[in-house]
Amino acid sequence: MIQNKKTLTFFLVMCLSLISGACGKDSGNSTGSTTSGNDPITVNPYVDWNQVPANLNPEIDTIDFNSSYLERFQINYFGFSEDVRVIYKNNDPMNAPANGFGSIKIYRVYQNKMRQDRYSFSQRNKDVTLSGSGIYNCKIQVQNALITQLDGSCVVRIDVYLPEGSELEVYDAKKILTKQFLPMPIEVFIKQFKNATWDADKHKVIDQYLASFQVSRTKKPSLLSVQLAMILRDFMLSEDKFIALRKLHLHISDRNNLRDVINNEFKFYEREEAFRIVGLY
Fold first, then answer.
1. Among the residues of the chain, which ranges form H helices?
2. Structure confidence by residue, pLDDT tens digits, 156-170
């Protein structure tokens, strides 16, 4: 949010699109945070919500959503890039969502001017976005977590509640607040592999692709036999082909085609070793 002992005025007219970057300058200096496991919630919010007086019209908007099949949650709310917390179920049982479901709480105050902005919660495939549109007119001053001056309607905090063990990535103005759970997409891997000039660089891309799956408990690397054939064909030396085959053969989804791949991509005298590597004797 806004730096202590400073006053900033926002008069923004914007409509944020799905998964777009946050507009305008950062609106503060405190740090978005994540609580997970059995760690207690120790983050000091920018505004002490329990001390907000009634004449500042404190209100909380709550959005519930099914988080079980989602991969990314992007917050693009009028450049609001701080004071966003991600809280997992075991840390706050009073507010935690049910298994498989998440919730968002948007904390807002207003005085003198009524709210003229609105938010939307949109979904596209496995991505969701909290975005804002309309006029965001906020003038606020905070000292020691207490609001000392307010003119307009201001969001002072956003909390994202997720079930314990959720692998949903949460981004605030494109800054990730959670662990990174999504591995490298296969199309990105293939593109980077093709763009690599030297064989050593191609091996590095393979290693990076496989390593990216270590962040996930549920996702595993998967390639088609035609993609494996393309990779093997890109190497000039037999030893490089054998190394690539050792790394990737267990991740081929259509293993029934491995024999054809080896017959097509290896010389006759190399095939025995290739068959041994993949377990086809």
1. 186-195, 199-211, 225-233, 238-248, 258-265, 271-278
2. 889 999 988 888 889
